[in-house]
Amino acid sequence: MTRAQPDLVCNAITKHFDDFRAVDEVSFEVPQGSFFSILGPSGCGKTTLLRMIAGFQHPSSGELLIKGKSMNGVPPNRRPVSMVFQHLALFPTMNIGDNVGFGLRQRGVARHEITRRVGEVLERVGLPGISKRRIDQLSGGQKQRVAIARCMVLEPDVLLLDEPLGALDLKLREHMKVELKSLQAEFNTTFVYITHDQSEALVMSDNIAVMNKGCFEQIGAPQDIYHNPVTPFVAGFVGEANKFTATVAMTNGQAVKLATDQGHEIYIDAGSSDVTNGSRVEVFLRPEAIELLQEAPATNNGANVSTGVITSVLFNGANSVATIQDASTGMVVTVALSQTGALSELTKGQTVFTRWQPNMARMYPLEDQR
Predict the structure, then answer these.
(1) Are 90 and 151 in contact (CB under 8 A)?
(2) CA 29 distance to own-chain centroid
(3) In whole angstroms, how large is the CA radius of gyration of the chain?
(4) In sequence order, which residues have a C-beta less than 8 Å from that of residue 55 and are 6 or more positions away?
(5) Which 3 state secondary structure label does DSSP give 8?
(6) In whole angstroms, what is the distance from residue 77 CA to residue 156 CA?
(7) DSSP state, residue 91
(8) CA–CA distance from 50 to each of 8, 200, 219 (Å)?
(9) Domain residues of the chain, as ranges?
(10) What is the distance between the alpha carbons of residues 212 and 219, in angstroms, rounded to a whole number?
(11) Within a 10 A sphere around the Cβ of 300, how many other Cβ atoms?
(12) In sequence order, which residues have a C-beta less than 8 Å from that of residue 317 and are 6 or more positions away?
């Protein structure tokens, strides 16, 4: 079988403003009908990249193709894309039907056809029969769906979403993550979504590109991004992690013994890291990778085991954590408590034991050595 043509291709897209490179030779493909998120902190270049895809800004160099056709020099209104803005940009003086049908009127579509298509798309986003309502009569989630309906009624090849959940309260934002993923599957349209919220990207995306300082550091499925980060930036930005620096005390190509800056001796799998004795590294360890024990284990079985004291227990439902200070070195780690089943028995000042396997940590050479 031949591989389907991707809906969006960016080849070495660069955008600079005088001497500042906002986007630096970014290349990627977005398959048909997929949910692709660009995740990164404020100022990393993700909005500039999205605006170049939309046609609101032009690349300084590189090529952008949609459905195999070059978009270089093509104005926004001629591109087969629609865009949902962060603050939705709905027209308060128009009712819902007029908001959704605005783009069709601009294209000169007949009135009866507009009425039919607006009714169909509102039904598909779960808002049937509300064309005559005012925008101020809707909830935040309903406004989100109207904004998506206004884009989808134009039948774009690619829908661009510029942090559309950022202005919502936490509970509604959690609900809309599921809604957006369901709507994307319902329309089977390619979504390109930008966000600084790792949870949004992990929950909704088929693939994620992690962006930093104008470049993509890693592209992959959410599970790969989370469990196998290829750079320290990705390891630290996506998900929670205990981070500490250490010196390589011994390596045999498969296992590495490290001496942390706090004087703790640990072992981790070498993986693909190319380190030598004496080199400086930074280590990332997920809180859920650490097992919390209230009694000393009978044997280590190759795991890293230490004794510590609970300095705090922070209840947050399934995301509850405890901070543990190593009794001998003072090194502090955060441990996820969702798997312990004994949260009520843990108290500040209690002596406990932590255990984690060498293959659960990720190691990277320190930046000043690369």
Answers:
(1) no
(2) 17
(3) 25
(4) 71, 74, 75, 76, 78, 79, 81
(5) strand
(6) 11
(7) -
(8) 12, 17, 16
(9) 8-237, 242-369
(10) 12
(11) 10
(12) none
pLDDT (tens digit per residue) in 4-43: 789 999 999 999 999 999 999 999 999 999 999 999 999 9
pLDDT digits (tens, 9 = 90+) for 108-157: 999 999 999 999 999 988 889 899 999 999 988 888 889 999 999 999 99
For residue 6, what are its two tokens? 């991707």
User: For 78, which DSSP code?
Assistant: G
Task: Say if residues 162 and 83 touch (Cβ distance below 8 Å).
Answer: yes
**Bridging pattern class, strands 242-251 and 280-285:** antiparallel
Answer yes or no: CATH 3.20.20.120 is held by domain 8-237. Answer: no
Q: What is the pLDDT of residues 36-90, one digit of tens each?
A: 999 999 999 999 999 999 999 999 999 999 999 999 889 998 999 999 988 888 9
Task: Name the fold adopted by 242-369.
Answer: OB fold (Dihydrolipoamide Acetyltransferase, E2P) (2.40.50)
Task: Report the first-to-last Cα separation within the chain, whole angstroms.
Answer: 42
Contact by Cβ (8 Å): 233, 214: no
Beta strand 190-195 with 207-212 is unpaired
d(CA 216, CA 46): 10
Tokens found for residue 79: 């591109």
* Residue 242 near residue 284, CB atoms below 8 Å: yes
DSSP-assigned states of every residue in 269-311: E-TT----TT-EEEEEE-GGGSEEESS--S--TT-EEEEEEEE
pTM to 2 decimals? 0.89
Other C-beta atoms closer than 10 Å to the C-beta of 356 total: 22
Predicted local distance difference test score (pLDDT) of residue 370: 47
pLDDT at residue 242 above 70? Answer: yes
Per residue, what are the HEC states of 202-254? HHHCCEEEEEECCEEEEEECHHHHHHCCCCHHHHHHCCCCEEEEEEEEEECCC
